[in-house]
């Protein structure tokens, strides 16, 4: 633009003072024009009005994925209480008791001719009124147990300083007698500390003075009474007040179909009365020291051998 203005002026005449004045005037005008065309820088920043828009969202990165570690191909450790061929666990109360599988049913006569000698399992743990039991000289028992598809078989000899049994039926425990406890669903309620319909408490009495032996079922409560189908025999052993008792208990009493390896909760107990003419349970010994009447978790374990 300056060039154009200067050219126009020079074209009007030769140079000289007037020319210089004219050029100066033109230069001043050009500067004024250039200044007018250049915006002034603001002295201070002016705050911009808020538009009311929401703040820009903060970007959130997804978490760094955890490195995948493939599981090891390791099988869980086998239950230490179960052995190959066994069906069910084993309670940690005393040794596992074995019921032999019998190919021929024993003759129920209390003579013991069908059983091993000596009898392999002891009843010798005091579990009731220990002050009244003075040890093996007072009373101790030994037994053998077996099974077949029809029945559970038991032969017991109890050595006793004095035989007293004047009670019957529901009260037969108030005299010399046996009590068989059986948990028929050991695996199903292994941790249950109360009696259930699968827990059986069967009393077995040898009788008194050649009186007929008898049985009574206390539990389960829905079956309480004199059971049917049992075959019982007893005799005096000639060892002070000792006696022998043999029994065949049909599996139908327990609602069981037996199989080899089946494990059942089990305790066999012997009550003692040494007061002639008096019906009283003075003490009780058992196969297992932890035995409590109404807590099946305190009983031992019976296995039906294949």
* Distance between the amino and carboxyl termini: 121 Å
Mean pLDDT: 81
Bulk shape? globular
For the CA atoms, what is the radius of gyration?
A: 51 Å
Number of strands: 13
Helix content: under 10%
Determine the structural class based on helices, strands and strand pairing.
mainly beta
What CATH calls the topology of the largest domain is: Immunoglobulin-like
- Low-confidence segments, given as residue ranges, are 1-54, 56-80
The major β-sheet equals: 13 strands, mixed
SSE series? HHEEEEEEEEEEEEE
CATH class of the largest domain: Mainly Beta
How would you describe this structure to a colleague?
The structure is a single chain. This protein has 306 residues and is mostly beta strands. A hairpin with an 8-residue loop joins strand 7 and strand 8 (214-219). Strands 1, 2, 3, 4, 5, 6, 7, 8, 9, 10, 11, 12 and 13 form a 13-stranded mixed sheet that branches. The longest helix is centred in the first third of the chain and has 21 residues, at 17-37. The model is unreliable at 1-54 and 56-80 (pLDDT under 50). Helix content is 10%, strand content 27%. Helix 1 (2-10) runs antiparallel to helix 2 (17-37). The chain folds into two domains: 2-33, no CATH class; 97-304, Immunoglobulin-like, CATH 2.60.40.1190. The chain contains two helices and 13 strands.
What is this entry, summarized?
With 306 residues, this protein is mainly beta. The chain has helices spanning 2-10, 17-37; strands at residues 97-101, 121-123, 125-128, 139-147, 151-160, 177-183, 199-205, 214-219, 231-236, 243-250, 263-272, 283-286, 300-304.
């Amino acid at each position: 633009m300056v060039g154009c203005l200067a050219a126009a002026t020079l074209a009007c005449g030769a140079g000289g003072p007037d020319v210089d004045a004219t050029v100066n005037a033109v230069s001043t005008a050009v500067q004024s024009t250039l200044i007018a065309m250049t915006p002034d820088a603001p002295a201070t920043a002016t705050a911009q009005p808020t538009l009311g828009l929401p703040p820009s969202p903060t970007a959130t990165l997804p978490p760094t994925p955890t490195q995948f570690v493939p599981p090891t191909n390791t099988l869980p450790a086998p239950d230490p209480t179960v052995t190959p061929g066994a069906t069910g666990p084993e309670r940690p109360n005393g040794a596992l008791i074995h019921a032999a599988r019998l190919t021929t049913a024993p003759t129920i006569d209390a003579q013991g001719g069908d059983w091993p000698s000596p009898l392999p399992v002891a009843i010798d743990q005091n579990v009731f009124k220990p002050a009244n039991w003075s040890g093996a000289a007072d009373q101790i028992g030994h037994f053998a147990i077996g099974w077949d598809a029809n029945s559970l078989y038991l032969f017991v000899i109890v050595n006793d300083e004095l035989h007293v049994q004047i009670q019957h039926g529901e009260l037969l425990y108030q005299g010399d007698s046996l009590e068989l406890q059986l948990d028929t669903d050991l695996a199903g309620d292994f941790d249950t500390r109360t009696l259930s319909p699968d827990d059986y408490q069967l009393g077995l009495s040898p009788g008194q003075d050649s009186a007929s032996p008898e049985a009574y079922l206390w539990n389960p409560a829905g079956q309480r009474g004199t059971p049917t189908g049992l075959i019982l025999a007893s005799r005096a052993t000639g060892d002070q007040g000792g006696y022998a008792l043999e029994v065949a208990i049909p599996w139908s009493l327990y609602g069981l179909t037996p199989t080899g390896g089946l494990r059942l909760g089990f305790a066999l107990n012997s009550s003692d009365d040494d007061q002639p003419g008096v019906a009283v349970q003075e003490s009780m010994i058992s196969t297992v020291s932890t035995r409590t009447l109404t807590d099946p978790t305190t009983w031992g374990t019976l296995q039906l051998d294949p």
